[in-house]
């Protein structure tokens, strides 16, 4: 088959899978999409109240809503793509019945849906913020967009690795959610790296998700400049798990067929 | 035609390895109906799934020059939480067929009525099988892979399946695996025998039948 034809077939499969995932994830009613907005809004409300209670002051020029949204959405992108990618194959194993569907397609379709959904949520919340609070300062839109995609890729790569590993070590599926739990507290959702004491910051910046959040806020605000950004380090966290995830998937496929 | 080149497939059974397909190289014509005879556990379903592309061979390759169906007869590939219609839409999309056309055909042929718009998990086994058969008829395959012939639905529906299939066989051919000689005689013009991981094709069904009897 010609390369163009193969590419077209690939897109057709991914498109069909994404439509199907939308159906299973958000339910039959169109209202189901509202659920995608509810979780981030609940988190924002929680942190908002918490900040008022402890009288937390943000650096000058930084609004509360935009601050929380720019921290929360990359975190959710990371968490969602990771858990969705991790369970993509076991949830859809019946679909491997169709020869044109490969395990990797299942993972990519879920990543596509999560990125599209949370990108829309990001735009909706910050759009309302711009309209009603009058705060909009997208300094470097491409950097913001890049940060969001990196968060999605980071989650997908680790999810791919987890799902492949879990064929050999089933406990992985139980351990990953436990490791994920503290991530919301250490990834810059409620703080910026610049607010941390230098010694603490040096340690915290080993967290690739904090790197991404910093990158995103650096792109969003003119008043905020991130230090110690290391994109090569973030890229390694994406490429290495993706590579081993794909290699292990080849080995895992035989086991999946047996099951 | 469908070419198999040095196809091997094995499964671990306990601490042994069961070589189900052992270096099979064969060219299957698609202008004739082909039957494969094999006793239970000789790898008929594995062969069918390798040809369909669901299973990857351990080594060797399968080259399909035609549009091959999924194995008809074991009703996998449906998502229980989605409705019959949604499942049909999905399959139509991945096979690049007209979505509305496929749905109309499947609804009409399966006689599911309003159940077509209900989640598959509410279906009985018979309804599921009816939908699976209807869907395979809704898509224009050039070769239909059939795993045994299992009777689907009641008498009138079976009659309908037979006539739809007879109609389809003017344009498409059949590749059927079975342990039952009657079934093979009914469908196949050329026949092979699968035993001990080896596949041998014979020019006539009678010759294959004699060989199969002698096993």
TrEMBL record, chain A:
It is found in: Cell inner membrane; Cell membrane. The chain crosses the membrane at residues 33-54, 61-78, 113-132, 144-163, 175-193, 231-248. It is a multi-pass membrane protein. It holds the Pfam family ABC2_membrane. Keywords: Capsule biogenesis/degradation, Cell membrane, Membrane, Polysaccharide transport, Sugar transport, Transmembrane, Transmembrane helix, Transport. Its main location: membrane. GO terms for molecular function: ABC-type transporter activity. Residues 31-252 form the ABC transmembrane type-2 domain. GO terms for cellular component: ATP-binding cassette (ABC) transporter complex. One of its GO terms (biological process) is lipopolysaccharide transport. Belongs to the ABC-2 integral membrane protein family. This is Transport permease protein.
Automatic annotation (TrEMBL), chain B:
It holds the Pfam family ABC_tran. GO terms for cellular component: membrane. Residues 2-215 form the ABC transporter domain. Keywords: ATP-binding, Nucleotide-binding, Transport. InterPro entries: AAA+_ATPase, ABC_transporter-like_ATP-bd, ABC_transporter-like_CS, ABC_transpr_TagH-like, Bact_Polysacc_Export_ATP-bd, P-loop_NTPase. GO terms for molecular function: ABC-type transporter activity; ATP binding; ATP hydrolysis activity. Belongs to the ABC transporter superfamily. This is ABC transporter ATP-binding protein. The lineage of its organism: Bacteria, Pseudomonadati, Pseudomonadota, Gammaproteobacteria, Chromatiales.
